[in-house]
Design goal:
three-stranded mixed sheet; globular; Rossmann fold; alpha/beta
Length: about 325
């Protein structure tokens, strides 16, 4: 099956492209420009999500789209809400138009569990009411609504994956907690600043486990007219304090922590991913917190070593 992965050069998109390729699919990456970040051996097509004509050309001979291209930073979404809706909703609408015109019948959409908001019921199942707490979550919820409406016409089979906190591997986003902790462990930052007392609990799922969920969704039997949603998480709660302890254990480094005033946020958010286990045959394999931290640390150290080697080679050639 030929699968187009939008955002194939991104943190999760590159892992999804690699997982689908490993499963034997004919994978094509969609990017705005270049091919940096796309796994080796995967061909690239270029298009902007706002350009329906370019998207149509990129969709030639495609059987299924895994749509991961999006703006994803929560704090940034508060400052630039229109941009987030333009890209995350408008881009999805344009993609759906192009898919319909090209006769591409299947979509797997990367969404976010933050749409649930501060749910009182834990763990969090798909039946929970939505309460998006920020523009990023609201834009993803709006995109889900558009996708469901298109599926209801019978022209689309859609799977929505609501992802919990993705971690592990080479994460370029230094605003996420695991990256921040490892920045301190690496000596790039002197102190980890934590809002509250470090007891806030979140569900962390390894990037590779999340990528395998897209592979599982792609393998499901097509059902035109269906839009089915699945939570993708580890099902295990890990506090900020637990993350710091795991990072110190894995790296062998002391991690200074400074606690600040608590932010207005829920204390505990954990997934119930039993629907994905039952219907997709998916379950997390590498999402224990030590593996998550170890893989993220190995990626950081590897990147630092590669950078030093490149600088050394440049000096040798000078």
């Amino acid at each position: 099956m030929r699968i187009l992965v939008t955002g194939a050069n991104g943190y999760l998109g590159s892992a999804v492209a690699g997982a689908l390729d490993d499963s034997g699919h004919d994978v094509v990456g969609l990017v705005r420009r270049g091919r940096a970040g796309v796994p080796d051996g995967i061909p690239v097509r270029t298009a902007d999500l706002g350009d329906r004509g370019a998207l149509g050309a990129a969709l030639v001979d495609v059987d299924l789209v895994c749509h991961l291209a999006a703006l994803t930073r929560v704090r940034e979404s508060f400052a630039s809400p229109l941009e987030y809706f333009e890209v995350n909703v408008g881009g999805t609408v344009t993609l759906l138009h192009a898919m319909a015109a090209s006769g591409v019948p299947r979509l797997v959409f990367a969404s976010t569990a933050s749409i649930y908001g501060a749910a009182e019921r834990q763990p969090m199942a798909e039946e929970l009411a939505d309460d998006p707490p920020h523009p990023y979550a609201a834009s993803k919820r709006a995109a889900e609504t558009v996708i469901a409406a298109q599926a209801a016409t019978g022209r689309l089979d859609a799977t929505v994956l609501r992802l919990f906190n993705i971690a592990g591997g080479p994460d370029p986003d230094d605003t996420r907690i695991v990256s921040r902790i490892l920045s301190v462990a690496a000596g790039d930052e002197p102190t980890l600043f934590v809002n509250g007392d470090g007891t806030a609990v979140r569900d962390y799922v390894h990037r590779d486990d999340a990528a395998r969920a897209f592979d599982a969704a792609a393998a499901a039997r097509p059902q035109p007219g269906r839009c089915r949603r699945y939570n993708i998480g580890s099902g295990v709660g890990t506090s900020v304090g637990d993350l710091v302890a795991a990072a110190a254990r894995v790296t062998g480094r002391h991690i200074p922590v400074e606690y600040r005033a608590a932010a207005p946020e829920p204390n505990r958010l954990i997934s119930d991913s039993s629907r994905a286990r039952t219907e997709l045959g998916w379950s997390p394999k590498t999402s224990d917190i030590d593996t998550v931290i170890n893989d993220a640390w190995a990626a950081r150290i590897g990147a630092a070593t590669d950078g030093k080697d490149q600088l050394r080679r440049s000096s040798d050639c000078a």
